[in-house]
Design a protein that fits this description.
The chain is α+β, with helices and mostly antiparallel strands. Helix content is 50%, strand content 19%. The chain has a five-stranded antiparallel β-sheet with strand order 2-1-5-4-3, sandwiched between helices.
Length: 416
């Protein structure tokens, strides 16, 4: 028993001696760490907590650095150029594709944005986004001298997007640049083709329709089959001529700066002329057109030719699409301090919600189930939208099927 007690006492002493030496070792290590951290000796007891804090901070910093590397790798793989700038428009970050888009050897962090992009349109857009605190998008053309090799359009085209950043990330803004030169060239080729083809087709078609009319005048002694054939030829000849004229109208509106002949005109008279022109389509039908304009001057500055087309197309569209009795088409105008609001509405069948985003597209025909009975070019509403936008306005469409369909046009009023 005594031997066992001595043995246990000896083992306990050895353990205490080992623990004391280990404690002394770690105490010296903590004191060394404390000295490196600039802590006082009396704070040495807090070293384990400080060490844990430092360890966690370093671990968090490493995780954030890893996440940053991953995000930067992903941003370098997209085709758009991305830039982050501070509130003074100094570059904070730029991904790799930006250098390729702008033909730059290097985009340096810390430099002013204008020094690297070398185009005031871009820096002005970012400044506007920061000042007005909103997302801004614009298409710009950069000259070949700024971006290197140009295109047949005289430069390269870019879609520029910018939006402000929150204060929690340091403020400033992000900027995204996308090269759309190829699509711009394709669009220009399409426009040229439509314009040239329409011009080339109009002359021979005019001659063909002229000869058809001449044959109709001399067909008194012709067989019924010949008369019927000439009538069908005349009908479809006029339909083709209408399509060509609509395509030419769209081509002219795409170059609005040179096609509009703006002058003051009375909108009420314009709408009334369109209603009178379409009155024969209402004969024998339970339908009517109402005009609601304020008394006095209803003056708007614009191209009267295109406004005749706007009202004619909108009213004609309502008449064609609504064959049931009780149709009421209402054309109204309201003059505010800085804008004129024009509306064309009807109480017809309406437009389904899934068709609303597409009605202003070229050749789009809604209500496929009866499109074969309703004749048209499918270009009327496209012309309306382009004509309104060419005058600096916007057009919106709302529809509650079976209740009301309304086209609302908002036009800025020029100061007197």
């Amino acid at each position: 028993m005594t031997s066992l007690s001595l043995f246990l006492a000896l083992m306990l002493g050895i353990c205490l001696f080992a623990w004391a030496r280990r404690e002394k070792y770690w105490t010296k290590r903590w004191e060394g760490v404390a000295k490196n951290l600039g802590l006082r000796a009396r704070d040495a007891d807090l070293l384990p907590m400080h060490a844990t804090t430092v360890f966690l901070a370093r671990q968090q910093a490493e995780q954030q650095a890893e996440q940053r590397r991953v995000f930067e790798s992903l941003l370098d793989e997209i085709s758009q150029g991305l830039v982050l700038v501070d509130s003074h428009l100094r570059i904070r970050y730029a991904n790799a594709p930006l250098k390729k888009l702008l033909h730059r050897k290097e985009i340096r962090v810390g430099r002013p944005l204008i020094e690297d992009v070398r185009d005031h349109q871009i820096s002005d857009l970012v400044q506007e986004s920061i000042t007005e605190k909103r997302h801004t998008t614009r298409r710009i053309q950069m000259l070949p001298s700024d971006v290197g090799a140009g295109s047949n359009l005289g430069g390269r085209y870019f879609i520029i997007e910018a939006a402000p950043l929150g204060a929690d990330v340091g403020g400033g803004a992000w900027l995204m640049i996308q090269d759309v030169t190829e699509s711009a060239m394709t669009e220009q080729i399409r426009r040229d083709f439509v314009a040239n083809a329409s011009h080339e087709l109009r002359t021979p078609l005019t001659l063909i329709n002229g000869y058809i009319e001449m044959l109709q005048e001399d067909s008194a002694k012709s067989s019924p089959t010949m008369k019927r054939s000439l009538d069908v030829m005349e009908k479809h000849g006029k339909r083709i001529a209408r399509i060509i004229e609509d395509m030419l109208a769209i081509s002219r509106l795409e170059d609005a700066s040179s096609s509009l002949n703006k002058e003051p005109f009375d909108v009420h008279d314009c709408a009334e002329d369109a209603a009178d022109h379409l009155a024969p389509m209402l004969e024998g039908r339970d339908a009517r057109i109402e005009l609601d304009f304020p008394k006095g001057d209803c003056v708007l500055t614009g191209d009267r030719f295109y406004w005749d087309q706007i009202f004619t197309n909108l009213i004609e569209n309502s008449i064609k699409e609504n064959t049931k009795p009780g149709l009421v088409i209402r054309v109204s105008g309201e003059w505010q301090k800085d804008a004129c609001i024009l509306k064309v509405s009807d109480n017809g069948i309406g437009i389904p919600a899934h068709d609303l985003p597409f009605v202003f597209k070229r050749f789009y025909r809604g209500n496929k189930h009866h499109s074969s009975q309703i004749k048209g070019t499918g270009l009327g509403l496209s012309i309306v939208r382009r004509a309104v936008e060419a005058h600096g306005g916007k057009i919106e469409l709302t529809s509650s099927p079976g209740i009301e369909t309304t086209f609302t046009m908002r036009l800025p009023l020029q100061p007197a």
